[in-house]
């Protein structure tokens, strides 16, 4: 499954929201994807089209133009039955360090993050 977005919106540590890390984007067709995690929780919350799900582990691969989200087979219902989502983005190079920091905060000790 694919989603195309202008940019990835991130906050590595929102002090107004109990230090929650958040990545969000909206597709050109109105889709909404969001990953969030509070630092004291062991699970990541994934929201797809406004339906939240909690996950124990996932794999995320970031490049300058794509973000690949891979779920365990048992969590595929979080993405409407699919086990992966490729997000094509045009996030500015100057913002990519914040995107990486946010994903590392979200996935720390609960998922796998890689940057290519």
TrEMBL record:
Domain of life: Bacteria
UniProt name for this protein: Uncharacterized protein
Organism: Pseudomonas synxantha
């Amino acid at each position: 499954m694919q989603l195309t977005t202008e940019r990835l919106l991130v906050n590595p540590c929102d002090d107004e929201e109990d230090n929650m890390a958040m990545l969000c984007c909206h597709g050109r067709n109105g889709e909404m994807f969001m990953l969030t995690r509070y630092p004291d929780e062991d699970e990541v919350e994934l929201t797809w089209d406004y339906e939240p799900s909690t996950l124990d582990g996932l794999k995320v691969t970031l490049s300058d133009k794509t973000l690949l989200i891979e779920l365990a087979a048992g969590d595929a219902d979080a993405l409407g039955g699919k086990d992966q989502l490729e997000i094509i983005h045009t996030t500015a190079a100057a913002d990519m360090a914040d995107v990486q920091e946010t994903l590392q905060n979200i996935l720390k000790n609960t998922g796998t993050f890689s940057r290519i």
